[in-house]
Amino acid sequence: LGENLIDATAAKDFAANLSGTNISTVIMTDNQLGDEGARDFAANLSGTKVTSLILSKNQIGPVGARALAKNLVGSKVTSVDLSLNQLGEVGAKDFAANLEGTKVTTVALG
Prior knowledge:
This protein is of the alpha/beta class. The protein contains four helices and four strands. 35% of the residues lie in helices and 11% in strands.
């Protein structure tokens, strides 16, 4: 789903429809999720089989990274790629600090 101009609303709707599918990896690089899209996308992953999220180059900042991590609690996600976003030092720190209670074992930020 890379380079498809997917915004926050479309990402939320996509994630909401993953329940009942066998999709385990979502590659949504180079879109326009932003902070809101990252938060809402992750909030809809509970009850899906998704284990790997590749959300690189999606205009996600510190607020979105923190919300994404918090909303992964209850999901099966073990791997998250947030490369080429606008996390900065604060976003990386907040993302890591909010992973407690998730199943995430692998993170790519570079």
